[in-house]
Each structure stands twice: as C-alpha cells, then as structure tokens.
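We modelled each protein-ligand pair independently. The example shown here corresponds to the S-adenosylmethionine entry; the chain sequence is given first, followed by the ligand as SMILES.
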Amino acid sequence: MIPWELLGSAKVPGGGGELRLYRRGKEFSVRVNRTELMNSSAHGSEDALAGLVCTKISGRPLPRLLIGGLGMGYTLAAALRLLGPNASVVVAELVPELVVWNRGPLAALAGHPLEDTRVKVCEADVARLLRTERTAYDAILLDVDNGPEGLTRQDNDWLYSRPGLDAAFAALRPGGVLAVWSAGPNTAFSRRLKQTGFKVEEVRVRARGPRGGGHHTIWISERVS
Ligand SMILES: C[S@@+](CC[C@H](N)C(=O)[O-])C[C@H]1O[C@@H](n2cnc3c(N)ncnc32)[C@H](O)[C@@H]1O
C-alpha cells in the first residue's frame, strides 16, 4: 500500500481549522481537521451538481454562474463542458492555497478548468458575494461544505440559514437556480428553501456517478419570480 504524502496545508479563514492536501499515487485527498472533504476518486455528485443546473438554464443567451467552493475543480469543469462560449463563471474560493493547488498539483485532475477564459476566480467567502450582488446570476452552485450541517467552518452556517437563502434568492435573476450539494438529506433545510420562495426539487445522486457509490443530496431550487 502506498502511504499518503502531505503536499500542503492551509488555515481556513474565519476560524475553521486547517485544510490539508495529500497524495497517494494518482489519488488526491483534501481533509479538514482530519475528516476527508474531497477525494479525487469520487466526483460523480460534484459533476451532477453542474449537470442538473446546466439542464435547467440551457437556452439562456449569456448565462452567468457563481460557484461557491473550488475544491478540486470538478463542478467547475463539468459546468464548462456543458456551457456555451458566451457563458461566464465566477468561482468564489475561501482558501487561497486551494487556488494555488488547483493551478499546481491538482490542475490536471479536472482538465485545467482555471485556464478557461470564461472563468474568473474570486478569492473570497462566497457569502460576501451573495450579500452584495442583486439579480446577478442565472445560477448559484454551493458546495462549500458537507451540506447544511457544515464541517469546514461555523460561519458557513449563514449560507444555509434563512438570511443566507434570502440573499441567494436576491442574487439570482428571475428563473435562476440555486443548487446546493449535501452529504445527505436535511428536512429543516428543505423547508427553509420553500419558505424563502423557491420551487424546490431534491435529487439523490451517486458519489461515483454511473459507477455507484454512496448517495448524496442536491437541492435544485428555482427562483420563480
Ligand atoms: C467540498 S469542496 C468543493 C468541491 C467541488 N465541488 C469540486 O468539484 O471539486 C469545498 C470547497 O469550498 C471551499 N469553501 C469553504 N467555505 C467556503 C466559503 N464560505 N466560500 C468560498 N469557498 C468556501 C473550500 O475551501 C473547498 O475548496
């Protein structure tokens, strides 16, 4: 068995502990406080997050997307494969080192998505963008954590709270879509999405896509007005 090699570590801004990047042969792992946040061998649900959104917004002439959480770049790469040349994608990433790793050892995993000219990286808390932008996006994709129950940092709870959902609703264009990734279902969060005014669909997806694996949850919520 090849041992894991530590490639780098980074403090999570806002008191969320430490992120660590490991490699074992061709496999990469990002861990937060010893719990695995991402593994390069399973990204079916991260791809599905982009696929479900792009199906919903297909036909929009100049689609503009906000992706919260770069991770290993799989959601971003899947969106870029499905979007046309007129699309633009803002990626908000809280941990600057993640961006450096995605330009370095992780770059080839998802096919160098940061080199795509449709992409703009914003090294910031995605909450900051949601708090300030109005009717700016056709879709907002949130995969910043393990889901509404959080893992990376406590401040992320705001994103899943009613004020956070109100901000996401306001940041979307009419007919726009908020998509949220989660390790599992969460009844209270589904209810909050509906109370915010979204038309909500809850989709179960597989961690390894067609190859199976565990089940994850994605909420696809449409701003109908
Ligand atoms: C599970 S990973 C995302 C995986 C990604 N969907 C992919 O396909 O690789 C979560 C990412 O969100 C970032 N993150 C956590 N909280 C954030 C926040 N509030 N704003 C922006 N990025 C955040 C983490 O640093 C990490 O890069």
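The chain has a mean pLDDT of 95.
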